[in-house]
Amino acid sequence: MRILWKDDPGWHEIVRRILSDDGHEVSFVEGHGDILPSLKAGSFDLVVMNSGVVHGGDIETPGLLTLRAIRAEPTLAELPIIVFSGAIHPDLERAVVAAKGWFVFKGGHGFDNVLAHVRELARAS
Q: Which of 83, 116, 87 lies closest to 100 in space, CA to CA?
Protein backbone atom coordinates (compact mmCIF):
# COMPACT_ATOMS: atom_id res chain seq x y z
CA MET A 1 0.00 0.00 0.00
CA ARG A 2 1.29 3.48 -0.89
CA ILE A 3 0.59 5.91 1.94
CA LEU A 4 0.88 9.70 1.98
CA TRP A 5 1.48 10.89 5.56
CA LYS A 6 1.39 14.40 7.05
CA ASP A 7 2.48 14.93 10.62
CA ASP A 8 5.32 16.35 12.66
CA PRO A 9 8.65 15.43 10.98
CA GLY A 10 9.87 14.03 14.29
CA TRP A 11 7.61 11.00 13.73
CA HIS A 12 8.60 10.30 10.12
CA GLU A 13 11.39 7.80 10.70
CA ILE A 14 9.43 5.84 13.31
CA VAL A 15 6.33 5.69 11.11
CA ARG A 16 8.39 4.76 8.04
CA ARG A 17 10.15 1.93 9.88
CA ILE A 18 6.94 0.45 11.31
CA LEU A 19 4.94 0.65 8.10
CA SER A 20 7.84 -0.47 5.91
CA ASP A 21 8.11 -3.59 8.09
CA ASP A 22 4.42 -4.17 7.27
CA GLY A 23 5.24 -3.90 3.55
CA HIS A 24 3.91 -0.38 2.96
CA GLU A 25 5.59 2.47 1.11
CA VAL A 26 5.26 5.79 2.96
CA SER A 27 5.82 9.27 1.55
CA PHE A 28 5.77 12.30 3.82
CA VAL A 29 4.72 15.90 3.29
CA GLU A 30 5.51 18.81 5.58
CA GLY A 31 2.29 20.81 5.35
CA HIS A 32 -1.39 20.26 4.69
CA GLY A 33 -1.00 22.44 1.59
CA ASP A 34 1.41 19.85 0.15
CA ILE A 35 -1.09 16.99 0.27
CA LEU A 36 -3.33 17.74 -2.72
CA PRO A 37 -0.45 18.52 -5.12
CA SER A 38 1.28 15.29 -4.02
CA LEU A 39 -1.89 13.30 -4.64
CA LYS A 40 -2.27 14.81 -8.09
CA ALA A 41 1.38 14.09 -8.93
CA GLY A 42 1.51 10.52 -7.58
CA SER A 43 -0.52 7.43 -6.93
CA PHE A 44 -1.48 6.71 -3.33
CA ASP A 45 -3.81 4.20 -1.69
CA LEU A 46 -4.28 6.06 1.61
CA VAL A 47 -3.78 9.50 3.15
CA VAL A 48 -3.01 9.87 6.86
CA MET A 49 -2.84 13.36 8.33
CA ASN A 50 -3.11 15.17 11.61
CA SER A 51 -6.10 17.43 12.04
CA GLY A 52 -4.11 20.53 12.85
CA VAL A 53 -4.88 22.65 15.87
CA VAL A 54 -8.45 23.34 16.94
CA HIS A 55 -8.67 26.94 18.18
CA GLY A 56 -11.50 27.37 20.62
CA GLY A 57 -14.67 26.04 19.03
CA ASP A 58 -13.43 26.46 15.45
CA ILE A 59 -13.21 23.01 13.87
CA GLU A 60 -12.18 24.34 10.45
CA THR A 61 -8.69 22.92 10.91
CA PRO A 62 -6.14 22.49 8.13
CA GLY A 63 -6.83 18.75 8.16
CA LEU A 64 -10.58 19.16 7.71
CA LEU A 65 -10.13 21.76 4.98
CA THR A 66 -7.64 19.48 3.20
CA LEU A 67 -10.02 16.52 3.47
CA ARG A 68 -12.79 18.58 1.87
CA ALA A 69 -10.46 19.76 -0.91
CA ILE A 70 -9.49 16.16 -1.69
CA ARG A 71 -13.14 15.09 -1.75
CA ALA A 72 -13.87 17.88 -4.25
CA GLU A 73 -11.48 16.23 -6.74
CA PRO A 74 -13.48 13.63 -8.72
CA THR A 75 -10.50 11.30 -9.15
CA LEU A 76 -9.78 11.36 -5.41
CA ALA A 77 -13.33 11.32 -4.05
CA GLU A 78 -13.13 7.70 -2.83
CA LEU A 79 -9.53 7.71 -1.58
CA PRO A 80 -9.36 6.45 2.04
CA ILE A 81 -8.31 9.26 4.39
CA ILE A 82 -7.51 9.09 8.09
CA VAL A 83 -7.52 12.34 10.07
CA PHE A 84 -6.11 11.98 13.56
CA SER A 85 -5.95 14.23 16.58
CA GLY A 86 -4.30 14.14 19.97
CA ALA A 87 -7.42 15.62 21.54
CA ILE A 88 -11.07 14.65 21.54
CA HIS A 89 -13.17 17.02 19.42
CA PRO A 90 -16.67 15.59 18.84
CA ASP A 91 -17.63 18.35 16.38
CA LEU A 92 -14.44 17.83 14.37
CA GLU A 93 -14.99 14.07 14.41
CA ARG A 94 -18.54 14.51 13.04
CA ALA A 95 -17.27 16.87 10.32
CA VAL A 96 -14.53 14.44 9.27
CA VAL A 97 -16.99 11.55 9.08
CA ALA A 98 -19.46 13.72 7.13
CA ALA A 99 -16.67 14.35 4.60
CA LYS A 100 -16.15 10.57 4.24
CA GLY A 101 -13.01 10.37 6.31
CA TRP A 102 -11.99 8.32 9.33
CA PHE A 103 -11.33 10.24 12.54
CA VAL A 104 -8.86 8.61 14.93
CA PHE A 105 -8.10 9.83 18.43
CA LYS A 106 -4.36 9.46 18.89
CA GLY A 107 -4.50 10.23 22.58
CA GLY A 108 -1.99 8.94 25.08
CA HIS A 109 -1.33 5.79 23.06
CA GLY A 110 0.79 7.65 20.52
CA PHE A 111 0.34 6.22 17.08
CA ASP A 112 -0.99 2.82 18.14
CA ASN A 113 -4.59 3.75 17.31
CA VAL A 114 -3.59 5.39 14.02
CA LEU A 115 -1.43 2.45 12.95
CA ALA A 116 -4.21 0.01 13.86
CA HIS A 117 -6.55 1.85 11.47
CA VAL A 118 -3.91 1.90 8.73
CA ARG A 119 -3.45 -1.85 9.10
CA GLU A 120 -7.22 -2.42 9.08
CA LEU A 121 -7.61 -0.43 5.85
CA ALA A 122 -4.66 -2.28 4.29
CA ARG A 123 -6.26 -5.65 5.06
CA ALA A 124 -9.56 -4.50 3.59
CA SER A 125 -8.02 -3.35 0.30
A: 83
The total of structural domains in the chain comes to: 1
Q: Is the pTM of this model over 0.70?
A: yes
Across 36-122, the runs of DSSP E, i.e. the strands, are 46-50, 81-85, 102-105
**DSSP 8-state code for residue 34:** G
Q: Which domain holds residue 63?
A: 2-124
What does the alpha-carbon distance between residue 13 and residue 28 come to, in Å, rounded to a whole number?
A: 10
**Ordered per-residue pLDDT tens for the chain, 125 residues:** 999 999 888 889 999 999 999 999 999 999 999 999 999 999 999 999 999 887 777 888 999 999 999 999 999 999 999 999 888 888 889 999 999 999 988 876 667 889 999 999 888 87
